[in-house]
Protein: Quinone oxidoreductase
Amino acid sequence: MAKAVRFNTTGGPEVLYLKEVEVGEPGPGEVRVRHVAVGINYADTYFRNGTYAVPLPSGIGVEAAGVVVALGAGVDHLALGDRVTYTGFINTLGAYSTERVIAAAPLIKLPETISYEAAAAATMRGLTAAYLMRRIHAFREGDTILLHAAAGGVGLIVSQWARLLGLKVIGTVSTPAKAELALAHGCSHVINYSTENVAERVRALTDGAGVDVVYDSVGKNTFMASLDSLRKRGLLVCVGTASGPVPPFDPVLLAMKGSLFVTRPALADYIADPAEKAALAGELFDHIGSGRIKIEINQHYALEDAVHAHRDLETRKTTGSSIFVI
Structure:
């Protein structure tokens, strides 16, 4: 039988458990996929702890790569044996499993140049990096960005992509080891936010001007420092809340700090159009397949280690990407 990680109530990592499940046959518009590798994302903790509400009991995980082993009626863009990957939100929830039935629409055919492991580690993170780099701001060569969590899975991809575009990257990290990793993947400078004042260091590194764009996946603890690091009319891109949600603020604050812009994008809105999703995925896989962007998979777990994996995520013990190997 197949196995899947489930949770019956929201809470800490301990609410996760592994059980045997009946997969069944795919219905119209569906396929059955045998997973080879499953992505682990910080967003998974939001489902588990109730930040993202879902009916309970529930599966968990939104990203995986594997092989199509059964086709439902009406699925004509996939074939048995196709290598596929996927990511999404509610429509892909349940990826922490050995095999599952899923709607065919979110599935992306996987080029032979991309391993299952790399796909599971990089489909969500990579598509996130793709839209952040290619859709959020009209960058010019020489622009400077501030990238929080630069040694994380998304951060390592963004910094490499930014380097390809000729951008300067200032990354923030929490340890010297993470600083070395960020520098090796495209950051021009790193700031250890545990010991340094981020905004002051940014001003020093930019001759007082500030950066063009800040990518902030941390949230509450970094919001003000992010605003204070921007040049006049700069853009803050809020892409996560690892430290908690950004507190309410008066928009006049943005005027006082230099007519700043703030946006809170979501991946789902940038891959909803199949053509745009295909374009972003194609560019991403081309970079990975050619070696221009390297995917760092620094943590490997078994499905039965889901509790441990989530604890590592939330205590910031991980760098790069984490996956379950089936």
Observations:
- Residues 110 and 184 are 27 Å apart (CA to CA).
